Prior knowledge:
Blueprint: E1 4-15, E2 18-30, E3 35-39, H1 46-53, E4 61-66, E5 69-70, H2 76-86, E6 87-90, H3 102-107, H4 118-131, H5 147-160, E7 165-169, H6 177-194, E8 197-202, H7 205-208, E9 213-218, E10 221-229, E11 232-234
Parallel strand pairs: 3-8, 3-9, 6-7, 7-8
Antiparallel strand pairs: 1-2, 1-4, 4-5, 9-10, 10-11
Helix pairs in contact: 4-5, 5-6
The protein binds adenosine-5'-diphosphate (ADP) (2 copies).
One adenosine-5'-diphosphate (ADP) is lined by residues 13, 15, 20, 22, 40, 42-48.
Amino acid sequence: MAIVQVENVGKRYLLGEQEVHALTGINLSIEPGVFLAIAGPSGSGKSTLLNIIGCIDTPSSGRVSIAGREVSGQTPDQLADLRARTIGFIFQSFNLLPVLSAEENVEYPLLQLRELSRAERRERVRHYLGMVGLSKYAAHRPNQLSGGQRQRVAIARALATHSKLVLADEPTANLDRRTGEDILRLMKDINRKSGTTFIFSTHDRRVMNMADRLVRIEDGQISALGMRAGKSWVF
Ligand code: ADP
Ligand code: ADP
């Protein structure tokens, strides 16, 4: 079963008198375990598509299912639960809470999982901070960390809830080239070892080329679907 199923999705925004078609006729079926890039120029609709897949925005038309559950059929409580347990987010500006330490930021979404005891939460935080190489930085606040370290905290936070699906909106946009590549390699490594599905957006060709599946969007429409074959893409 596909982890993400998008059927004929459209998204329109009203800007004053004018209607903006951010997405038109999007169809996608994403298999579990893939490392997928959504590539396209700025303004092409990448964030809108990720937000709709992540259930933080709703389509104007069409249907979305996540792990076999149709999103529009969920009550608000069910949707909050689906988001908390199934989906992790990584953002270009990291979106960490500035007054919390690295470990408190990773623990934060775990507070929503009521079945976890305090000891179980602590153990998860320890495990995932270790996985991203930040065990020694657990007590640091975001402003005491580099950009790459902040994004590592965000990756640990996205994984700690045992999300099956991690959505990353331009995760390297605020990092220098080498740090961005390190972050992508870390995500890829976790994807390979854990089978967690990663979907990330980028307008950077180098970053895009680290994916094993590619969705190219232009002007709110899919213009190409690619699959990696060795060093090149098959469209
Ligand atoms: P990308 O992530 O590829 O840069 P976006 O998904 O952010 O693209 O935007 C796609 C289009 O939708 C753009 O034309 C953008 O201006 C428009 N758009 C996005 N969000 C809104 C909004 N809240 N209100 C009006 N227009 C929007
Ligand atoms: P070159 O610089 O050799 O002419 P391109 O600029 O066409 O090659 O492609 C650079 C990389 O982007 C290659 O890995 C290629 O497979 C990939 N690529 C080419 N066309 C597209 C496309 N429409 N969408 C996404 N990736 C593409």
